Amino acid sequence: MSAPSKRPPFDPRDPLGIDDLLEPEDLAVRDTVRSWATDRVMPHIAEWYERGELPGIRELSRELGSLGALGMSLQGYGCAGASSVQYGLACLELEAADSGIRSLVSVQGSLAMYAIHRFGSEEQKRRWLPGMAAGEIIGCFGLTEPDHGSDPAGMRTYAKRDGTDWVLTGRKMWITNGSVAGVAVVWAGTDDGRGGIRGFLVPTDSPGFSAPEIKHKWSLRASVTSELVMDEVRLPADAVLPEVTGLRGPLSCLSHARYGIVWGSMGAARASFESALDYAKSREQFGRPIGGFQLTQAKLADMALELHKGILLAHHLGRRLDAGRLLPEQVSFGKLNNVREAIEICRTSRTILGANGISLEYPVMRHATNLESVLTYEGTVEMHQLVLGKALTGLDAFR
């Protein structure tokens, strides 16, 4: 009999040995994105957050394009064609730096590019996707309106026929990348007799289109957030996405983006947990490190449980997505659990850091405030609870 192999030591950063589930290609993607975020984002993110801006976003976009991070899991048209797990790992590493950076990538790839890739014509794909994959063109996604968030069916943005053209009028709100985008994917009601809501590709230099930036945010401060205003924007017939009608289009895009959030939220949680763990081992009170006290260790143990259970959940959903078996209800399961637990990890980490936890010298409060937005965008807690409630009972409680 061969002697049993020597067991590896316990790793506080990977207590369940989740890395053993990853292929070498997965690890290479993760490490590449982590290295980029460490070099290009981490030295500056506290200053960007404090100033409430994301300077150099176009340069960052091109760098992310060169990494293959934009439209990462899409095939062809300059996209990397990576696995869903690899895309998820990239989201985790980007959000470990900041939710605003992950949002830039998520909106570009999982919303704007995904909509074009899945529902666009061949001509539309060739026109937009290569430049977007390279980060030369930034995209945004216009669904939410000032008066309609969780109920997009009530949208007021409307496109009417005028000869062979469309004339688009309305407003969209809380749009990531809006003020720097070259193309906006805008969803609007129509009078074309095909079921109402259609998607339109709107070049942002079109007359009548504007995207004023939203200021005075206390969350996602290192992110460009805008309003989209369409004042009788005239579009040619080929601006409409031809392969989808109704809410199925935007909702499928949101499901794809929510999958990235399942991973990304664990990045914010990991950064906060590791900050608290390091602090607990070095901060001394009553003559010894606070990590040596039972109450602190209980907090660290509980946070580690939820963090790594969340990563396992994300990995499981990623494998299902790669196998073509992931259901929208399962995405809701992941988003609801992981973002909620990530916020709790940030809050508990803050208690370990004490007053230092509110300082931008540490990432904890920044991640906590960012996650307050992540908790409610692309589906509030209540909406995901009702999605799961309907799936469990077969009864629709939305109305």
TrEMBL record:
Residues 24-136 form the Acyl-CoA dehydrogenase/oxidase N-terminal domain. Residues 140-233 form the Acyl-CoA oxidase/dehydrogenase middle domain. InterPro entries: Acyl-CoA_Oxase/DH_mid-dom (IPR006091), Acyl-CoA_Oxase/DH_mid-dom_sf (IPR046373), AcylCo_DH-like_C (IPR036250), AcylCo_DH/oxidase_C (IPR009075), AcylCoA_DH/ox_N (IPR013786), AcylCoA_DH/ox_N_sf (IPR037069), AcylCoA_DH/oxidase_NM_dom_sf (IPR009100), Glutaryl-CoA_DH_mitochondrial (IPR052033). Transmembrane segments: none annotated. Residues 246-392 form the Acyl-CoA dehydrogenase/oxidase C-terminal domain. Keywords: FAD, Flavoprotein, Oxidoreductase, Transit peptide. Pfam families: Acyl-CoA_dh_1, Acyl-CoA_dh_M, Acyl-CoA_dh_N. Its cofactor is FAD. Belongs to the acyl-CoA dehydrogenase family. This is Acyl-CoA dehydrogenase family protein.
